[in-house]
Amino acid sequence: MSHPQEVQQAPASGSIPLAAELQARTRVLTGFWKAVAIAFGSSAILLALNQLLNLGFFVGEVLLDTAYLYALAALLVSMVFLFVPATKGAARDHVPWYDAVLFVASVGVFFYFAFNSFRIISEAWEFMSPPTAVAVSTVGWLLLLEATRRSGGTAVFVVVGLVSLYPVYAELMPGPIAGLGQDLYTTMAYHFTSSESVLGIPMRAFGELVIGFVMFGAVLQFTGASEFFNNLAFAMFGRVRGGPAKVSIFASGLMGSVSGSVVSNVLTTGVVTIPAMKRTGFSAKYAAGVEACASTGGVLMPPIMGATAFVMAAFLGLPYSQIALAAAVPSILFYFALFMQIDGYAARHGLKGLPAEELPSLAQTFKEGWQYIIVFVVLIYLLLVAQVESMAPFYATGLLLVINQFSPKHRLNMAKLGRLLTGVTASLAELAALLAGVGLIIGAMSVTGLAGTLANDLIYLAGNNVYVLLVMGAITSFIFGMGMTITACYIFLAIVLAPPLIQAGFDPLAVHLFMMYWGMVSFITPPVSLAAFVAAGVSGSRPIDVGFQSMRLGSAMYFVPFFFVLNPALILRGDPADIVAVICTAVVGIALIASALEGYLVNVGTMHTGVLGMLARLILALGGLAMAIPGGGDLNLNHLELSAIGLVLAGVAVVLAKISQKIRAAAAIA
Predict the structure, then answer these.
(1) Residue 13, pLDDT score
(2) Is the pTM of this model over 0.90?
(3) What is the CA radius of gyration of the chain?
């Protein structure tokens, strides 16, 4: 096995799928096209700095926000056609003529709207676009779908394509999913001229936040900082089973709690944790899924929980400390489930860590790279204390480059700088295309009015059944979570959805936390799954694969909110004895469910995928559910009876697992 210090001297795959992984998925541009990539990438970064710092191009010329985003898309989305081949078998050593045509056409489409940005607003092009704008929008829609396919895969392309056309057939849909129909021309124009679709929240987040963090991650990979933090991870946790993945839980949980931003959390901690996970044997999509879940859960973790918890305190008229205390147990259960799955994965795949003699020295690692810790301290200070989230990665990158130039081993020269800028541009291009494509989904919901009427329709359909009402609430929260920031989503739901749920008899604090949890679910659930998409860029894996992996790893986020709504003891409200009993059984239940999902139970071993093994996993999951779910209500079973049922089912599962193991062992000998 190679020495980690030697392995890590090569460029690692981080927030940008650089080096070998970048070359495996994209073209390596040379000559003229490499110059174009460097020019476009550099222009995009300078444009972002100009807009974020309000420099006015040093001559007082200020761009409208929409003009800025159009120009950013022109510079970056277009580059997908140069970097990513149309098919796996397409040319990788040169840019074919048709990709050059698509590149030029994409630049033209977005710059057309950038130059007309003032007219778009003043003349209300959203619904009264001139024929030329409609035609350009139609071409842009086709180009963006193809860019989305190349950067996100066929599954994302199909979902985005179908949903983006939803306004055309909205009136034909049944009941609550029907909407105000639009003709094809209006739909096309709305997607490109409104601020709710291509230029919606995902693209705005990209232009205001993500671009800086992607650049920061790229510089990390090309400097000694990447090697230092990877060596540090190996030195501290290389011998622990699944150590780097477990560390990502704590790092991302803490970072997400204080920053309140899932995307920046992935881009801040993921550039360190994901490469470390991959180097100790985790698959790329699994590592990305762990980081996406850990970063999403951070916003739900006390003590800070981002800004949303303070808004919640205002809505409920409760001290913030009560909100944080109530959120503690559910968030710990979420991370505990993630921890158990990681441990099971590591055990099942034999990821035991490296021998001590093959690990870098902790003392030597600190001696060679302690200065890089300063960069992260500065970054965290800027994010949490100075609260300049959009500019923090730019300042941190500048400091990192200065520090790096004092290292003869990692100092950048012109050749390295060229590779750095090309890598940055490739990653920015793929993310820009993905986020702009996701915006088409949000735009379709907006123009049809579905986003504004769905909540009331679902509540009406639920009737007097409180359980159906809860499910409807979860669906509504999930849908709104796709199109809004978590704080905006929560505020809307607190106004529209909370009153009927509270009127149905549920605890008010539990209801508000329930909406917050389900508003966060969209960050790890396709088709939007922003956390998974960004983590996929960090790991170099397919976004849709990471999305489904994140759903499994973060499964606790789907059912834990139902537990604490049905029994508020899980949020520390009620009789102390009941609270202790509910928490203890919930911990055991969550452990059993996580073990069933991963196919590994502590002190039992691997639960194989044969018929008996799968049956054992199913029964174990049911046992865990019986222990975790609150008693009483319509179940006609109290908490003690459910726990007893859960223990019996878990015992049956263990017996079946042992039988399955013996059968497989006998077959292997034979």
Answers:
(1) 33
(2) no
(3) 25
